[in-house]
Design brief:
8-stranded mixed β-sheet; 0% helix; mainly beta; 318 residues; Immunoglobulin-like; 3 domains; 48% strand
């Protein structure tokens, strides 16, 4: 999955296909004394193969050249320190050079992947649940998703991992992500995916986005049919309404849908009966609303129809 360069004593890599790890120089050497020059040849190389599952400590022999200058106190033949005329300590410099093999560098490698399964939660503080089959969420609702490291004792994720993607619009990097679902599923097989990836490891959550499809009313034949808007209802009449769910096969969550409106509709559940006022609407625009809410809201406008006045005809020609 590419070439990696040794620059630290501990390395974290995505779980990946066999890769080559190369050393471009010893970056963490410590020297006693004052270093005035430190050189590494540009073509110094050593490699080790990293398999999909290997992790641990590695010791790799490398060929390198190190040249450095050390400043040390000057002494006479008896080992006595020598001083300059101004009283400062007299020093001298000497150069040490090591080259062509015999060097080594040690480092740790962690091959990090994803621990199955992915987890999710509906709201902050509600607790994480394992993704086990399709997840249902109301249109416009949000879910948080999280993945864990494999192995779990890995000290860190590889830089820039894990990454998130999917048909849900999930995007970003990090251990967790929040996704808002605004597109309704057309069927239970039309899932919106949330995909986490670290190297060659992937985990996927399938989400079914549901919501209110329509409001129906029970007609004179006792059948539920789609309610027109406006719906004409006799003053003082009672009408049964029903909310339908999309996609077919989805189930209403507990306490949904919620009914409301200026008609006096109130309560929750798939169906509701609404008793309308005995006072007719004053005009066709004077409607009473019946509203069902589950994520989004559907509304039916109702015109209450009553008798305005009675007229009579006394006789022929009158």
């Amino acid at each position: 999955m590419g070439t990696y360069w040794v620059s630290h004593s501990v390395l974290f890599f995505p779980k990946c296909h066999p890769s080559t790890l190369r050393d471009s120089g010893l970056h963490n050497m410590t020297f006693l004394g004052s270093i005035s020059s430190l050189h590494f040849p540009t073509r110094c190389r050593s490699s080790v193969t990293v398999s999909r599952s290997s992790k641990g400590d590695y010791n790799v022999n490398v060929d390198f050249t190190v040249t450095f200058t050390i400043e040390a106190p000057d002494t006479d033949s008896n080992g006595n320190l020598q001083y300059n005329g101004d009283g400062s300590l007299k020093t001298y410099e000497y150069t040490v050079s090591e080259s062509a093999g015999g060097g080594s560098i040690s480092f740790s490698i962690w091959i990090v992947g994803l621990q199955s399964p992915m987890q999710y939660q509906a709201s902050s503080g509600s607790g994480w649940k394992n993704v086990d089959g399709a997840i249902y969420v109301i249109k416009g609702g949000s879910l948080s998703f999280k993945v864990n490291k494999n192995p779990t004792d890995a000290p860190s994720w590889p830089t820039g991992n894990p990454t998130w993607s999917g048909s849900s619009g999930a995007s970003g990097t990090g251990e967790s992500i929040s996704v808002t679902f605004n597109t309704m599923s057309t069927s239970t097989s039309d899932t919106k995916t949330v995909v986490a990836q670290c190297g060659s490891d992937t985990l996927t959550a399938n989400v079914i986005v549901f919501g209110i499809d329509d409001i129906q009313y029970k007609n004179n034949n006792g059948q539920y049919v789609s309610a027109p808007s406006p719906l004409y209802v006799p003053a003082g009449g009672t009408v049964d309404f029903k909310a339908t769910l999309k996609p077919a096969g989805a189930n209403w969550p507990a306490g949904a849908p919620v009914w409301s409106g200026t008609s006096g509709a109130s309560g929750s559940g798939e169906t509701i009966s609404v008793a309308f006022s005995t006072t007719p609407s004053t005009s066709l625009s004077d409607t009473k609303t019946v509203m069902a809410t589950c994520g989004e809201t559907k509304t039916v406008d109702v015109v209450v129809v009553g008798i305005k006045e009675l007229q009579y005809k006394a006789g022929s020609g009158s």
